[in-house]
Amino acid sequence: MKLFLVSCLFILSVSVEASSYRNEANFQWFLQNHDYIDSAIEANDSVALIPIANIMWEIWKARDGAIGGEISTTMAKLIIAKPGLMLSTFEENPYVFRDWLDELQSPMFTDFSGHELDDLNMLRTNLIEVMTDYSENGDPSSLSMPKKLSVG
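Predicted structure:
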């Protein structure tokens, strides 16, 4: 019995370590490929954006500390470029969407450098327009999105 418990604990610890490693690897990939990601978003390159969105989603779900602030702006840009891609994922996970919305209130739209106010205001305006349009005029399956995204 003791050997069984030790084996179970080992398997669980390896699973957690593998998950942590994957999360760290995804985040490191994001940091090392930020220019590529921005270029794909600007070009609205669907082939490149699908795996990028998947990685961003995985990073977001497993984020801790400052990682949320690091990736929120890129996630917003992805939503603007391909609203159906990211918002449909949030639609399936309304609590995760609420977490992301909560993050918007603090670091994402704060001009820490003193030189980004216009860009941040443009990003905010575009994000609101795209999310509103998606919820009102998106795919027929997405018309229930505001109800599904209501949490609590």
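Summary: The CA atoms of residues 60 and 99 lie 10 Å apart.
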